[in-house]
Write a structure and sequence with these properties.
Structural class: mainly beta
Radius of gyration: 25 Å
CATH superfamily of the largest domain: TolB, C-terminal domain
Distance between the termini: 33 Å
Number of domains: 2
Helix content: 10-25%
Shape: globular
Strand content: 35-45%
Bound molecules: zinc ion
CATH class of the largest domain: Mainly Beta
CATH architecture of the largest domain: 6 Propeller
Oligomer: single chain
CATH topology of the largest domain: Neuraminidase
Length: 551
């Protein structure tokens, strides 16, 4: 793990932490601390990690966040003073400026969120998990609020707990976090005094969560209202987080993405950058490593490989520039836990290699090398459920389809699926809706489209969509934005572009854009950089490149 040394702020920016939605059922919160020098510890009642079986979806929303536009009623089980009540209401409703949600404070005790004011820490249930709580019991507690509590403290803790109530998780527990906790000291500090936590509980509240337990990401945000203050004395590197009592820009944007105030139509926003490169880049992939985003480029004809940083919409400095052997027709990047791997395949010889990708974006050691049969035209990696990724291989010419489970160390594991389909499927992608990964198949020659659900074990399941479209689409890309999955089709030859919504059932829904672009766009990649998302278009033939911000 990269530690956060030297310039704290700069280092933090390079480390990505997950922001949003999630899953500690009871988490805790910034405890009021009188002595400035005390680490600000947190109390928790209990916590529970959602079982491993929870699908690793891009947006975990439907299971944890409230339906978009919900009116969420809030009531008190204990009787707060007028001041405490008014401040809780005021600061809770601050979230409404950014989220499409309405906290309605009601009299009586039957709110969706039921607040207690008894000693025992400040905590909240996460998102709609509040609905599972017995109606007579509280779903949120403010353990130290009284008329003497400072305005900053009232604001900080209310914003934080209502962030949990909206489905937000602690920043410092992100799968991508690089916090250099000094565990022996952390365990000792949280194990004594007001907390008295067991090691297990301390680790459960502070330790990085695996990718499987989280959904939506943003860049690491040390200013988030959802991060604990972190004492420098509890870290092994020079790192600390000072307490905050305001929503950060990422908090505002993140919650607006989870609870959008109106769906956009076309997802493509304004042109952000354009370049003219050499021709021949026919494999274009983007990947994230340690909070940074990279662009991988390969020319199959010459074996040239470049890897560049992507900084917001711009293509930044090159971190890797090599000439490999020619003939690698397919390059794909997949991730196991935090480790990225590069998969390479030569269609004409059946050669396959897999390399680790280093944290700095360069190509590392080889972990797999085999000679397979020839003719594999498509290879793609996807996750379904919480296990390791699956690899799907298709031969356009013969209709052969294989699926393999990937091993923990990045090598290709057991074959789980072996079928002969009709030939001609060459536009093949996967996408996720409602926690389910789906397989999109299109034959440019005939216009046939199939969408199948993928089973929990990664194999191909029920067909949910079967249509005949016009022929000629050369690429299909999927992008989820604001809880909505989109499909973008491109016809490189004629410059046609179409966008549609994808429904919750995995079928292609309303068409939202139908445009005529210039011809020749062969690559179309969506990527995230910081809190924003972008699309990169590339023409193999003449090296034109454009990046666009997504709305
Ligand atoms: Zn908390």
């Amino acid at each position: 793990m990269k530690t956060l040394k030297n310039n704290t702020k700069k280092s933090i920016d390079r480390n990505s932490i997950i922001k949003s939605t999630l899953l500690l059922i009871l988490t805790l919160c910034m405890m009021h601390s009188n002595a400035q020098s005390d680490p600000k510890l947190c109390l928790t009642d209990d916590f529970e990690v959602i079982p491993e079986s929870l699908p690793n979806a891009y947006v975990i929303a439907p299971k944890v966040i409230w339906p978009i536009g919900s009116k969420i009623t809030v009531s008190f089980l204990d009787t707060p003073s007028t001041k405490v009540r008014s401040r809780i209401k005021k600061y809770a409703q601050e979230w409404e400026s950014y989220a499409n949600i309405d906290f309605e404070f009601i009299s009586g005790k039957n709110g969706d969120i039921r607040i207690g004011l008894k000693k025992g820490g400040s905590w909240s249930k996460i998102g709609i998990l509040a609905k599972k709580v017995d109606k007579s019991k509280k779903t949120m507690n403010f353990g130290w609020f009284n008329d003497g509590t400072s305005e900053q403290e009232l604001r900080r803790t209310t914003l934080h707990e209502f962030g949990h109530a909206l489905g937000l998780k602690h920043e410092h527990q992100s799968p991508a976090a690089g916090i250099c906790w000094d565990w022996p000291k952390v365990i000792a500090a949280y194990g004594t005094g007001a907390n008295g936590w067991s090691e297990k509980r301390t680790r459960g509240n502070l330790e990085r969560l695996s990718n499987e337990k989280v959904g939506n990401y943003s860049a690491f945000d040390p200013k988030s209202i959802m991060i604990y203050s972190i004492s420098n004395a509890l870290t092994t590197c020079d790192f600390e987080v000072k307490s905050t009592n305001v929503l950060s820009a990422v908090d505002m944007q993140g919650i607006a993405n989870l609870y959008p105030k109106g769906k956009s139509r076309s997802i493509v926003g304004k042109l952000s950058n354009q370049y003219k490169w050499t021709s021949g880049w026919d494999n274009v992939e983007t990947f994230e490593s340690r909070g940074k985003t990279f662009l991988f480029l390969l020319k199959s004809k010459t074996g040239d490989v470049h890897i560049n940083k992507l900084q917001n919409g711009a293509v930044g400095s090159k971190v890797y520039d090599k000439k490999w052997t020619a003939g690698w027709t397919t390059a794909r990047i997949f991730k196991i836990s935090l480790q990225n791997y590069l998969f390479l395949l030569k269609k004409t010889t059946g050669d396959v290699k897999i390399f680790k990708l280093n944290d700095n974006g360069t190509v590392g050691s080889k972990v797999f090398e085999k000679k397979w049969s020839t003719g594999w035209t498509n290879a793609l990696f996807y996750k379904q459920g919480s296990g390791f990724p699956n690899l799907l291989l298709i031969k356009k010419g013969t209709g052969d389809v294989h699926i393999h489970k990937m091993n923990r160390n990045g090598t290709v594991g057991t074959k789980t699926f072996d079928k002969k389909w009709t030939s001609g499927w060459s536009v093949v992608e996967t996408f996720v809706v409602n926690y389910n990964t789906h397989l999109f198949l299109y034959k440019p020659g005939t216009g046939d489209v199939h969408i199948n659900k993928l089973n929990a074990n990664g194999t191909v399941g029920t067909k949910v969509f079967d249509k005949k479209w016009t022929s000629g689409w050369t690429s299909a890309s999927f992008y989820a934005k604001n809880n909505q999955q989109h499909l973008m089709l491109l016809d490189a030859k004629n410059g046609r572009m179409k966008q549609s919504y994808v429904t919750a059932g995995g079928t292609v829904g309303d068409e939202i854009a139908d445009e005529k672009w210039t011809s020749g766009w062969t690559a179309n990649n969506f990527y995230r950089s910081g809190i924003n998302s972008y699309m990169l278009l590339l023409k193999e033939k003449d090296g034109q490149v454009k990046t666009f911000a997504l709305k």
